[in-house]
Write a structure and sequence with these properties.
By secondary structure, the protein is an all-alpha fold. It has one domain. Helix content is about 25%, strand content about 0%. The chain starts with 20 loop residues before the first helix and ends in a 19-residue tail after the last helix.
Length: about 50
């Protein structure tokens, strides 16, 4: 039987725009990708900045 690998979900959000959510998210994803697989999703449907 294969061992189930569990992932971790991290959400970054703020009520105000322009506070650095995208910058923080891309930086932390880049750092974490040095050791593990990372999936970064920009859920801002009006103005997505990650692509």
């Amino acid at each position: 039987m294969k061992k189930v690998r569990r992932g971790v979900v991290v959400g970054v959000f703020a009520a105000k725009g322009g506070v650095g959510k995208t910058t923080f998210s891309t930086n932390i994803a880049t750092f974490l990708a040095k050791k593990k697989r990372v999936l970064l999703i920009d859920a801002n449907v009006s103005v997505p900045n990650v692509g």
